[in-house]
Amino acid sequence: MTDTPETLAPLVEEWPFPLLLIDPETETISWANTSAQEWLGKSIRHILKKSPWEIFTVEGDVLDIISKCTEHEAPFTVRDCPLVRAGHEEEFAHFTAYPTQLGVGLSIWMSGPKPRRTRVGGQLVSGMGRLIAHELKNPLAGIKGAAQLLRDDVASEEGQILIDLIGSEIDRIRRLADRMETLGDQDPENIDRVNIHEILRRARRVIQSANPTLIFTERYDPSLPHAKGDADTLMQALLNLIKNAAESIEGHEDAGEIILETSFRSGVSARDESGDASRHLPIEIRVIDNGPGISKHIADQIFQPFVSTKPEGQGLGLSLVSKVAAAHGGIVEVKSRPGKTKFSLLLPTPNGDTP
Fold first, then answer.
1. Is the CB of residue 285 less than 8 Å from the CB of residue 262?
2. pTM of the shown model
3. Which domains are seen in the chain, by residue range?
């Protein structure tokens, strides 16, 4: 049975979040669902033919979201935008404008009294970073020395490649340990143009060298521009995401698979830590697995330190991913259900390209 507009109308009308239909020529409201009317405290006749920005106050990129949607005929999203309704204190919301046959749909999702940040900070995380750095540095010299001794006993080309990989990873971990001493205090210092695909391929090789039976599928957008970031810390963040995916599918009854994808994602921006400006985040990196998914009881806490689904886990991997994303001016998203978990890391470009 194919749904008709008549059968779909109640679904849209009863959608539990504010939803407006905007006339693209006048940028005024031509329809509002029940949730929008209740949220605004106004009936439909009091908001028709008015700009949504007349009814509630916003600022920044969201003011242009309707015109951008109309111009590019594509969805646009602005996250954690400050918003003030009459008689209410300042709130924050995610706005998505999307093209429809009848005009521009404007969906509003409240994100709470203050924006949710991916940054992990404070004395706890700073102390954690110094502790981890200290514990990492001690064995690194011994491991590298052992790898150099192994080189003389390994004749195969594949073995030499693996030893080179060990050496390069030790050097990277040493550099990372130096920076982890300021985890929670500073942003990465070595910001440059980075090739995300090179980092992803290297991270995949590292994980696969320890788990040769893992099945990887790589789907990279060859036209993707370079990202703005620090190669070492981005490498560590992606290693953590891929390692989590690998552990998720370990022992899975069906064939486990990890998918690595990149794409240019239009219309996503996020406000900076001060809340004064927003950045466009067109570069999307996705790590997808077909494991059992994230337990609902910790889904909202997975980026917090010491929260883990594994009995032996320390709960530090995703908090570091969160820290790295925020330090780069980006965000990390997660969507999970049984059979599919997707982590998305969104980053800016070096020259601030907009979609």
1. yes
2. 0.55
3. 5-112 (3.30.450.20), 123-347 (3.30.565.10)
